[in-house]
Design goal:
With 149 residues, this protein is α+β, with helices and mostly antiparallel strands. 54% of the residues lie in helices and 19% in strands.
Length: 149
């Protein structure tokens, strides 16, 4: 019985502290409670309006940065696809290699399963990175591999 209370006691205390910290009051413009309460209501309203504007500006900047990152990623992907298209279009004999993976097994949940053969083409001087083998072989997890041709 003691083990159960020890195991669940720490996460419960942590969750409680986290929920209390989420309820902490945040005063505008970084003011302390004493400073905030000493201000007249008109100045409190002015500071609140300024803080709302600062928060809105920060959100807008973060959203713009996210949009730019998405656009840059799309541009990188588009350029990489164009580079590969050009490489395949201008390939000479021997520049394209067909890779076939077959005759292997995958370990999943303590059992071994054979997989169906899979083939893909690689163009000379390209880098083919497999983050997750499930991209090619289906539902399995293997370590990250990079194939350079």
């Amino acid at each position: 019985m003691r083990r159960w209370t020890t195991r669940f006691h720490v996460p419960l205390v942590f969750a409680g502290l986290l929920s209390l910290s989420a309820c902490a009051v945040r005063y505008p413009m970084g003011l302390s409670r004493e400073q905030w309460e000493s201000l007249p209501p008109s100045q409190q309203a002015e500071y609140q309006a300024k803080q709302y504007q600062i928060d809105a500006d920060n959100r807008a900047r973060a959203e713009e940065a996210r949009r730019q990152e998405v656009a840059q990623k799309a541009d990188r992907e588009r350029l990489e696809l164009e580079r590969l298209r050009q490489a395949y279009a201008n390939a000479r004999y021997g520049d394209i290699v067909t890779v076939t993976v077959q005759g292997g097994t995958l370990s999943y949940a303590g059992k071994r399963y054979s997989y169906e053969p899979v083939s893909f083409d690689l163009v000379f001087a390209s880098v083919f990175h497999i983050d997750n083998a499930s991209d090619i072989l289906g539902n399995c997890s293997l370590h990250s591999r990079t194939v350079r041709v």
